[in-house]
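User: Last request for today: this protein with NAI, please.
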Amino acid sequence: MADRYLSFTGTAPGRFLTRRLGLPQPAPLRRWTAEQPSLAGDLLHLTAGKSDLDLAPVLARTGLTAGEHRPAAVVLDATGVRDVDTLAEVHALLHPVVRSVATSGRVVLLGAPLDPEDHHQAAVQQALEGFTRSLGKEIGRGRTVNLLRLTDAAAAESTLRFLLSPRSAYVSGQVVGVESTVNGGAVTAPDGWDRPLAGRTALVTGAARGIGEAVAETLARDGARVVVLDVPRAEEDARRVAERLGGTALALDITAADAGERLAAALTDGLDVLVHNAGITRDRRLVNMPGDRWSSVLDVNLASVLRTTDALLSQGVLRPGGRIVATASIAGIAGNAGQTNYGASKAGVVGLVRSLAPRALAERGVTVNAVAPGFIETRMTAAVPLFIREAGRRMNSLAQGGLPVDVAETTAWLAHPASGAVNGQVVRVCGQSLLGA
Ligand code: NAI
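Assistant: Here's the final one, the structure of the complex with NAI:
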């Protein structure tokens, strides 16, 4: 279902009319293309307080350079901010430049982990979250604002590259934590940043269409050999996707009791990236929800994710250095009327990620993260009634729905060999939806 409002506001009369009426002004987002893989413009690197980060060499490798033009990206290193006086530097540094940040540009704040021994440091570092989310809501023109907490710039290279690129077009208002390599993050520099997944195998569930298809496509672009899994009735579509991407199709209902064994049998050469994307909705208010609508949603969205994760980890199919990316939803964070089943299942995914991530990394060198999409233009959301659909599309800082590729790019960053220090994170791909925190 095309976003006609976004097309309309892109025309001169549309812009004039919607401005006069005070309606949302979505800017067409600039996404990654092979021809234009980077942001167009300069990088402005600012520092508030005294920082110990060795950031310059990492920033130099993003392809962005300092210059005299409008910044396409502003990186404000606030890791050294420990008190309210120094916090004022965040305002002083950004206040004069924020207006000049290019359309579809990026503002990335760097913060430190909260210090449990120093409540002044913790207060002002937490303050950066409120600052980030507020600036994200007001900055407009397709620009995004995110906060990255880190202690080691090298461990955060893949994350900085993602946040400072067109790949993160629909990720805004997020706080991402990157551990230091010292804390056990298995960070492997890829042989090449263009095809970081070359020689790796990725399994994407529910990949015959929608977000899963885009994930398979993006992981294949990054060099992975993809296994496109979907239910038997979608086998033809799954095969079409697999053929296009040079991968293989696997017709399997992920809720089948023997799904774990069937997967292990199909992945005898091992697996590097496991993307739990298959998901369903069966909406009804709780008073009208029969047991089968509850159990089918919980089975596909949560129980099968738990079962297949356990099977692939315990049988050693998922290799050391492996990546698990599960699909949550903002409905699992904020809740949604008519979705007690779906909200419960997606919140369950968040719980799984938080609990398993530290153990999987320590014991098997595998990271576990989640993407939490907001309103993404797919068949699932095309089926939503018109007014709710329009509200979902507009009620976010970018005033538009995201595309499947936005979730796919976020997944590809989490699946990256150099993202081993990103673990236990739940990253919303929601244009900073007004729903939820
Ligand atoms: P979709 O309905 O277009 O695609 C889902 C795919 O999963 C389908 O190909 C379907 O056949 C497959 N599938 C369903 N049950 C399966 C099973 N038992 N075994 C194997 N495959 C199965 O959905 P969409 O929109 O692409 O969503 C993908 C994921 O993203 C889901 O987990 C969904 O909950 C989540 N999500 C989507 C949002 C959106 O706005 N579209 C928002 C938040 C989360």
